[in-house]
Design goal:
Blueprint: H1 3-9, E1 15-25, E2 31-38, E3 42-47, E4 56-62, E5 72-84, E6 92-101, H2 103-116, E7 117-118
Antiparallel strand pairs: 1-2, 1-4, 1-7, 2-3, 3-6, 4-5, 5-6
């Protein structure tokens, strides 16, 4: 799928995060990767391992007191694509769509976007 097709299908413009936020598997507590950019509908993550497409994950992201009244949020996300990172050969870029999230945790994501994200030009926004 080419980049313009992804942009056409995306409902929300992705925002680059000012720093990587750790993403862990909510069930195993195993590190999955780091958020690179995010919208309310999905996100781009760097991972040290290849992740097959169309797989659902229950994920956890730790939060900060300035964006949430709890220490982490959880949601279900479906991997959509995975490819080697163009800059870091030992990493993979993985695109996810958020398929299940509570209203409260979606509000926390919006606060993270508002406080820590910027319109970026990394090629994914």
């Amino acid at each position: 799928m080419n980049q313009s097709s992804l942009q056409d299908r995306r409902q929300h413009k992705r925002k680059n995060l000012a720093y990587y936020m750790l993403v862990v598997d909510a069930q195993t507590q195993e590190k999955v990767g780091h958020l690179v950019d995010i919208t309310l509908g999905g996100f781009l993550m760097d991972s040290q391992k290849s992740i097959p497409p169309e797989r659902d994950f229950r994920l956890r992201v730790d939060t900060m007191p300035d964006v949430s009244d709890k220490t982490f949020i959880t949601f279900t996300a479906r991997s959509k694509w995975c490819k080697p990172d163009s800059v870091e050969p030992h990493l993979f870029d993985v695109g996810f769509r958020i398929v299940g999230i509570s209203q409260h945790d979606a509000e926390v994501i919006q606060k993270i976007i508002d406080k820590y994200a910027s319109q970026g030009s990394n090629g994914w926004s």
